[in-house]
Design a protein that fits this description.
alpha+beta, 355 residues, four-stranded antiparallel β-sheet, 17 strands
């Protein structure tokens, strides 16, 4: 049988949680469960796979988020990728700026602090006003599949960031493989057949995003609507989020509208549903708003403090850019949305997000 826990939305000693075999908290019936993916990855039993698949789909229907444990990605690989990310963001600003993000179709390159403003708005003027008033306090590096003839990744010279390109391309492949496995679990959970999505996600049209949240004075975070990353949903099928121990991710309880902390749990990946998968499933699977807020600050004086630095890595999983997203079988008789092309949808969302 699959192993299911529920993650508390407050800091708890990990040893206590695991001794109990349960880490749980519900805020008006809102949970982010911790799901052991080994029972899906490592078994030949279809019944065991279906059990874990059912747990995942149930969670995605309720909260849109899970913590995935025993996911198969080696801890050393994750740590190495974080270190190469730190090395990149430590480069001088002029070097990073020379690799600047240029185009929403490419969606590759360096994004300096304040350039992106994530939001649910689709209005360019409204987003520009939000960016001017309360920009996101983060910098990112966006990496796509590396073999496109037209859209090229922006790599720093090898002598400036030794091993960076190789590490990121390896991690890209690792995350794609996990994406395929989780999509297979979703397919089983929706009674579509385990390999339903295989040919719809095999072109690896994903986005690996390295994120750095530098230390910031609390006075800069006091504007209305200000956050390290504003409230938003993601665009694609799934997001695989690798967090450090600092925390700051908050998920909106769809039942109350309140945001609750998704406290980092060692050796897990946060996985959440994106807008295209929600649309594909006719909103049976939930794409949930989330944001990144500043963790507790260190006091400088009576009126000022400074937040700690934070790192995370997000792998934004997408269907093939050529795929048509229309209501899946077993997801209702009346589609809520007309069919849409993956590339058109994602590029349209990106185009209004950046300056």
């Amino acid at each position: 049988m699959g192993f299911l826990r529920f993650a508390k939305f407050r800091a708890i000693p990990r040893s206590v949680a695991f001794q109990r075999g349960l880490a749980s908290q519900a805020t008006n019936s809102f949970n982010i469960p911790v799901i052991n993916f080994a029972k899906f990855r490592s078994t030949s039993s279809l019944d065991e796979k279906r059990h874990t698949a059912g747990e995942i789909v149930s969670a995605f229907k309720q909260s849109g988020f899970i913590y995935l444990s025993n996911h198969g990605i080696d801890t050393a690989e994750i740590q190495s990728t974080f270190q190469k990310s730190r090395d990149f963001f430590a480069l001088p600003s002029d070097i990073k700026d020379s690799l600047a993000w240029e185009d929403p179709r490419s969606n590759r390159g360096y994004v300096k602090i304040g350039r992106e403003r994530v939001t649910q708005s689709r209005d360019p003027a409204e987003i520009a006003a939000l960016r001017a008033k309360a920009p996101d306090y983060k910098e990112t590096m966006e990496i796509g599949r590396d073999w496109d003839s037209e859209w090229k990744n922006q790599w720093p010279a090898g002598d400036l960031a030794p091993g960076f390109k190789q590490r990121m391309l390896g991690f890209y492949e690792t995350c794609h493989e996990l994406h395929v496995e989780v999509m297979r679990s979703i397919a089983l959970g929706l009674d579509l057949g385990e390999h339903f999505f295989d040919t719809k996600v095999n072109e690896k049209c994903h986005n690996l995003r390295l994120l750095s949240y530098p230390p910031v004075k609390t006075s800069l975070l006091r504007n209305e609507g200000q956050a390290r990353a504003g409230a938003h949903s993601d665009y694609g099928t799934l997001t695989l989020l690798f967090q450090d121990s600092v925390g700051g991710l908050e998920v909106q309880n769809p039942n109350t509208g309140k945001f609750v902390a998704a406290t980092p749990i060692n050796d897990t990946i946060v996985v959440n549903v994106g807008d295209l998968l929600a649309r594909w499933s006719n909103d049976i699977l939930r794409s949930t708003l989330h944001r990144v807020v500043a963790p507790p600050s260190k006091k400088i004086n009576d009126t000022e403090g400074v937040t700690p630095a934070r790192q995370s890595i997000a792998f934004f999983c997408n269907p093939n850019f050529s795929a048509e997203i229309s209501c899946l079988p077993n997801c209702g008789e009346t589609p809520k949305y007309p069919p849409i092309n993956t590339e058109k949808y994602i590029v349209g969302r990106l185009a209004v997000t950046y300056t």
